[in-house]
Amino acid sequence: MSREILYVAEALSNEKGVSRDVIFEAIELALASATRKKHMKDMDVRVDIDRTTGTYDSFRRWTVVEDEEFESEDRELTLEQAKKEDPDLEIGDVIEEEMESVEFGRIAAQTAKQVILQKVREAEREQVVEMFEDRIGEVLSGIVKRVERGHVFIDVGSGIEAIVPREHGIPREKVKRGDRLKGLLIEVNRLNRGPILTLSRKSPEFMIELFKVEVPEISQGFLEIKGAARDPGHRAKIAVFSHDRKLDPIGACVGMRGSRVMSVANELGGERIDIILWDENTAQFMINAMSPAEIESIVVDEEKNTIDVAVNEAQLSQAIGRGGQNVRLASELTGWEINVLTTAQAEEKNEAEAMEFVKEYEEKLDVDEDMAIMLVQEGFSSIEEIAYVDESELLNIDGFDEDLVEELRGRARDALLTQMIAKEEKLEDKKPADDMLGLDLMNDKLAYILADKGIRTRDDLADLATDELLELVDMEESEASDLIMEARKHWFE
User: Fold this and answer.
1) Quick one: how far is CA 262 from the chain centroid?
2) How far, in whole angstroms, is CA 323 from its chain's centroid?
C-alpha cells in the first residue's frame, strides 16, 4: 500500500499542478478520518506519512486543559490526569500514543477522495490568489461565460473566473455570453466560495487605465492624468496635464479623428467623455471643469471649500446639466463643492455679503456706513485683515492718513481681543470643575462630556437622579447610581 500512496500523490500532483506535500497532507487527513470512523469515536488522530517510502504511522492525541474547560474525554485530559502520566506536562501540551493504522485500501481511498479534491481546490485557488494579489488596479480582459441577475462572470484565461458584480457594472449595459469584456481588478477573494477575482467597470480608475493603454504619451511620462469623474454609461470628465509644453494634452487624448477617446468611450458603453485641461490655479481649473458652459465669474471660499460659479441665465441649464450631471462631475473632479448661480443671483449674493461686512465694521470698529462701505469696496473682508495687513495697503485708500490708519488698526485689534476673550469664557463654561475631576469614579472624558451638557461641578452631578444621568451619557444603570452617590458623599460628611 505504501507504493500506492506514492503513486496517487505523484499522479495527482502532476494532474492538478500542486505540490506533493499538499497531496500527502490530504491523504493524512483522510486516513485520520478513516481511523475515527473505524473506532467510532470523536478522537484526535494524527497520521504521519513518510514522503520517501510511503509508509505511515498513526497516533492518538489528547490535549491538556484546565479542569473547568474539560469537555471531551476522547480528545482532552485534565491537568491532574496528565500529571499522572508526566509531572512535567502543562496546560496546552499534547500527549500522543501510537495506535494501529488503518489500511490504505478501497474504503480509505474513497474517504480520501473528497479530502484530496478539496485540498487540491484550495491549493489551486491559493495559486491564483498569489498570481493576482499584486495586480490589483490592473485592467483584465476575458470572455463572458454567463450573466446571472446582473452579475457578469468572465473567463480571464487558464480557467480562472472573475466576476463583475451588478453594483460594479455599467448600468443598462447589454452583455451576452461570448462577448469580450474588460474590467479593473479591485479585489482578490481568498474565501473558498465564489469567483476569486472581482472586477469593476464603473470606477473612474477603470477609465484612467483605459486611457493609459490608448495614449502612449501617458506611460512615457509626457502626459499625466490628474483625476477623473464618471456617471457610468452616460458622461465622464478627465483632467489631463502636459509636462511637455510642445504637447497638447487634450489633442493627444482625443487622437487622430477622435480615435483614442472613441476607443475608450466604446469600451465604456458609449460614455461621453469631456477631456479637461488641468490647471494649478483653482479658479481656472474650475472654469475648465465646467465646460462646455461659459463662466462669467467665480468666487472661491477656501475655508468652506466651496466655489460660487456665475453664468449667464441662458447658460444655466447647460452649466448644471441634465439632473445636475455637469456640475456634479465637475465637483467630483475638482474636489470642491460648486454652487451654480445666474449672474444676477451672484450679484445679489455678493451685495448681501458685502452688507454683512459693512454692518460688522460699523459695529466692531465704530465707524460710519460710508467708511465701512469704502473698506469693503477696497477688498477688506475681515477684521483680521484690517488689524494685521501691511499699513501701506490702508494708506492707499483715498482720504486715509497715518493717524486714521493707526486708529482703525487699533480698533480692529481691540475687537479681535474682545472676540478671543469671549471665546475663552465660553470654553471655560464647558470645562469641568476641579471637584468634578477629583471624584474617584470619574474620568476626564466623562467629565468633559458632562460639562459640555451643563454638569460642571460635583454638586451639579449630585443633584441628578440616576435616570437623568442616563439620558445624558451612555453607561450602565449601576455605574450611574454609584457615580451619583460618590458625588453626594460630601453632603453626609
Assistant:
1) 32
2) 27
Question: Which residues, listed in sequence order, are joined to residue 228 by a DSSP beta bridge?
Answer: 238
Whether 236 contacts 207, CB under 8 Å: yes
Q: Please state, for a pLDDT cut of 70, what percent of the chain lies above it.
A: 94
Strand pairing partners for 199?
185
Residue 377 pLDDT more than 70? yes
- Where do the H-state alpha helices sit in 58-182? 79-85, 106-132
248: cell is 497638447
Q: Which three cell numbers stand for residue 140?
A: 483584465
| φ and ψ at residue 140, rounded to 5 degrees | -110, 150
Q: Is residue 285 within 8 Å of 239, Cβ to Cβ?
A: yes
Q: How many Å apart are CA 137 and CA 403, to the nearest integer?
A: 65
Measured CA to CA, the distance from residue 139 to residue 160 in angstroms comes to 15
CB atoms within 10 A of CB 309: 24
Write the CB contacts of 142 (distance below 8 Å, at least 6 apart in sequence): 154, 155, 156, 157, 162, 180, 181
Q: Classify the phi-psi angles of 67: left when phi > 0, otherwise alpha if psi is within -120 to 50, otherwise beta.
A: alpha
**d(Cα 65, Cα 171) in Å, to the nearest integer?**
57
pLDDT of residue 189: 84
- In this predicted model, which residue has the larger pLDDT, 8 or 89? 89
Dist. CA 138–CA 296, nearest whole Å: 41
Separation CA 76–CA 63 (nearest Å) = 5
**In whole angstroms, what is the distance from residue 289 CA to residue 275 CA?**
9
pLDDT bin (cut points 50, 70, 90) of residue 110 is low
Beta carbons of 368 and 349 less than 8 angstroms apart: no
Q: What is the dihedral of CA 101, 107, 108, 109, to 10 degrees?
A: 150
Q: 360 phi and psi, to 5 degrees? A: -65, -45
Computed over every residue of the chain, the mean pLDDT equals 86
Distances (CA, A) of 252 to 208, 240, 242, 260, 433: 14, 10, 10, 8, 67
